[in-house]
Amino acid sequence: MSESYRKIAVTQVRSLSGRPETHRRTMRALGFTKNQQTRYHTETPTIRGMLYQVRHLVDVSEVEE
Predict the structure, then answer these.
(1) pTM of the complete model
(2) Residue 37: how many CA atoms within 13 Å on its side-chain side?
(3) Can you give the pLDDT of all 65 residues of the chain as single tens digits?
(4) By the 8 A CB rule, do 56 and 41 touch?
(5) Which domain holds residue 28?
(6) What one-character-per-residue DSSP string does 6-47 give?
């Protein structure tokens, strides 16, 4: 079962100050350490679920290959 997933760019646009610990851990797992950073991921169901949890803190865009 080989599915082709697209690449996405995820940028942190809001601070983690005052956010629940679960959101902080999710952002850390996505690779964020500072505000305004951009990380590149493959859009898998796991990554989509993590982004859904912190959708108010990030901006997601598709990457042209």
Answers:
(1) 0.89
(2) 12
(3) 557 899 999 999 999 999 999 999 999 999 999 999 999 999 999 999 999 999 999 999 999 87
(4) no
(5) 7-62
(6) PEEEEEE-S--TT--HHHHHHHHHTT--STT-EEEEE--HHH
Whether the CB-CB separation of 14 and 57 falls below 8 Å is answered with yes
2 within a domain of the structure (yes/no): no
Q: Domain for residue 56, yes or no?
A: yes
Dist CA 2 CA 36 (whole Å): 33
Total domains present in the chain: 1
In this structure, what CATH number is given to the domain that contains residue 23? 3.30.1390.20
Which secondary structure element, helix H or strand E, spans residue 61, and what is its range? strand 58-62
